[in-house]
Design goal:
nine-stranded parallel β-sheet; alpha/beta
């Protein structure tokens, strides 16, 4: 039996296990191959970088477990032309434009997506809100070792808030006005945000529309407050959330009071509060031993291992 005689669903299942490069090569074999390849991409790790060194450093400091799996066969890196990287605004605009172009081509079939950009803008947010089959989403905007002449010194410390995050909680009624109300991005099981300017209310709306979420990782999302923990304890995912990593947020209201709300998350298996310096690590440890019994616990800090600022990496400025 030849490959071309297989049922479309079976052919797509086979192709979905190919590395991105092999899938792209298959798309060049024929018109049928092109159509099958475009409808078979299930996982993609996409990074848009302004230099090669930016690309390498981002990979070195990737915190996700995805970095060591499958030899990066699902990874695609795009380097912007020199003429497109003169200013921060130009880099962000071109990153979002190229990422959105890729997502519009494959968004209908993607189930697992990681994006590495500097900031989220409307083109990518629009593309994400049109991906109904997405199960896992990771948006990485935290690259403290990246340098550019037009970046302010504290640029990587936080992210500005904005209405662009509202687009991720839209329904099909918002998109086409047909009277429906089904969330377009409504099947998420895992969400990872790094240095995202999302607010309490915006994240609450995403959670409300994704009640099947079991994994939530929020690194350096400094616009979130203690109010989010109060919501999370009563949210649709309070009884099913297995992983909660809320890290590198030094806001004063992220303090011992959030521990009471964490106690309401009865199904937690992994919890990290690393970098939340106003949370007492000894109290956190005691509560876990006495009440929570979380198997994988990372304390805010320890006396043996105090919080440290990210150390600079020295690189040759002439290396592009």
């Amino acid at each position: 039996m030849s490959f071309s005689s297989l049922p479309v669903e079976l052919a797509q299942e086979i192709l979905s296990h190919l590395p991105v490069r092999s899938l792209n090569n298959f798309s060049l074999t024929s018109q049928t191959g092109y159509i099958l390849a475009r409808s078979s991409l299930r996982r993609l790790d996409l990074g848009i970088f302004h230099t090669r060194i930016n690309n390498l450093i981002a990979l070195m400091h990737q915190t996700s477990s995805r970095a060591s799996t499958n030899n990066n066969v699902h990874s695609v890196s795009i380097h912007l032309p020199t003429k497109d990287i003169k200013t921060r605004q130009q880099i962000v605009r071109n990153q979002n434009s190229k990422a959105a172009s890729v997502l519009h081509q494959h968004g209908s079939t993607l189930r697992d997506l990681e994006l590495v950009l500097w900031e989220l803008e409307k083109p990518v947010a629009d593309a994400l809100s049109s991906m109904p089959n997405l199960r896992r989403l990771s948006l990485r905007f935290d690259h403290p070792f990246v340098r550019h002449p037009t970046l302010q010194k504290n640029y990587w410390n936080s992210a500005s808030t904005g209405s662009v995050w509202d687009l991720l909680s839209r329904t099909d009624d918002d998109l086409d006005g047909d009277g429906g109300s089904t969330p377009v991005l409504g099947r998420l099981e895992a969400l990872n945000l790094e240095r995202a300017g999302i607010t309490d209310w915006q994240l609450m709306q995403i959670i409300e529309r994704n009640p099947g979420m079991t994994e939530l990782k929020l690194q350096k999302c400094t616009s979130l407050t203690g109010e989010f923990f109060a919501y999370l304890a009563k949210s649709p995912i309070a009884k099913t959330l297995k992983t909660l990593h809320f890290t590198r947020n030094d806001k004063e209201d992220i303090d011992d009071r959030v521990l009471d709300h964490i106690g309401e998350l009865k199904n937690l298996k992994s919890l990290s509060l690393y970098g939340c310096k106003h949370v007492d690590p000894e109290l956190c440890k005691a509560l876990n031993e006495r009440c929570w019994h979380v198997e994988d616990l990372t304390l805010p800090y320890t006396t043996e291992s105090p919080l440290q600022e990210d150390a600079p990496i020295e690189v040759d400025p002439a290396y592009k």
